[in-house]
Design a protein that fits this description.
The chain is mostly beta strands and about 300 residues long. About 10% of the residues lie in helices and about 30% in strands. The strands form 5 sheets. It has a 5-stranded antiparallel β-sheet, with no helix packed on it. Strand 15 and strand 16 form a beta hairpin. InterPro entries: ChsH2_C, NA-bd_OB-fold, Thioester_dehydratase-like.
Length: about 300
């Protein structure tokens, strides 16, 4: 059975019509970069304006109210594969947007950013989303003078980098020297007998100088930790874990990364071991230790490490 031919209805040169004083005022304000609504006898502000109150059928007043330009998404429908005649050439949403100060919503395109064709709607697209119009540079008095709406800016990513020179002093220099040899050194306090790692040249508890060196193991116990979801160049992946680790033979914890295990499986009391970089990459820096990885040993009971949490 032959298929039906396509039919096209077209007005050469376009379809010209008068818009009347109410719609005409609305379109004129759009041309000037403003959103306005008209007030009804009952006090409601209609956007887009109509000549009659849709609730009562009474003529609207002559009072015009500037609204927005920001507004709130009332409902939306995602378009994963735009058609050639759609306002955007990438996935977007049709949304009912109620401008601030209005009592009704207008339908317009909502640009949520760059997405591949067929993409699912982003998680932050939801009812209640705050949006603002993107105006065209050249406007002629039509709803298309607003190219689209876009979400309000609620977050920025500011590149941040701080370079500084650190004078390590005698104690830290000695500590980094030992790290460059694959050893971890601490200082023993002559008063409280605590082994301080990294060595600082003094005991902060007793306020006395420390000089006696003690080598500690590169194994230890996680005393507390945090799961991080912000990328870090030192971390193998996101999310990653930073933890305070009590090295075997030390009496103060040391902050380090934990890897080699899913972030949601890291736990207090877990036994770990330093993952050293290849020997040829060593230098006087803590970067010699990439991170700490789990040991196949039983967890340490909380009672034994509770004073370090």
């Amino acid at each position: 059975m032959p298929s039906s031919p396509n039919h096209v209805l077209e007005f050469p040169g376009g379809y010209t019509r008068s818009v009347g004083p109410v719609i005409g005022r609305f379109l004129s304000e759009l041309r000037d970069g403003r959103l306005v609504g008209v007030r009804t006898a009952g006090g409601r502000v209609l956007v887009p304006p109509t000549e009659y109150d849709p609730d009562t059928g009474a003529a609207v007043t002559d009072e015009w109210v500037e609204v927005g330009p920001a507004g709130t998404v009332q409902s939306w429908s995602w378009v994963p594969n735009p058609r050639p005649d759609h306002p955007l050439d990438r996935p977007f949403a049709w949304a009912l947007i109620k401008p601030d100060g209005a009592d009704t919503a207008l339908l317009h395109a909502l640009d949520m950013g760059e997405f591949e064709a067929g993409a699912e709607p982003p998680r932050f697209l939801k009812t209640g989303l705050r949006v603002r119009p993107k105006w065209r540079a050249e406007r002629g008095g039509g709803i298309g003078d607003i190219e689209c709406f876009r979400p309000e800016v609620t977050m920025i990513n500011a590149p941040t980098r701080l370079e500084y020179t650190l004078d390590p002093g005698r104690a830290l220099s000695r500590f980094l020297e030992s790290i460059s040899q694959g050893r971890i050194l601490g200082h023993r306090c002559p008063v409280c007998d605590s082994v301080i790692v990294p060595m600082k040249g003094m005991c902060s508890r007793d306020g006395v100088p420390t000089t006696e060196e003690v080598e500690v193991a590169d194994t230890g116990t996680v005393t507390t930790f945090a799961v991080n979801n912000i990328p870090d160049p030192r971390a193998p992946e996101v999310p990653f874990v930073s933890a305070y680790i009590l090295l075997d033979g030390a009496d103060l914890t040391m902050l380090a990364l934990v890897a080699g295990i899913p972030a949601d499986q890291v736990r207090i009391g877990m036994r770990v071991k330093a993952a050293w970089r290849p020997r040829e990459e060593w230098g006087p820096t803590m970067n010699n230790i990439r991170w700490f990885e789990p040991l196949d040993e039983p967890d340490v009971p909380f009672e034994r490490i509770k004073d370090y949490v």
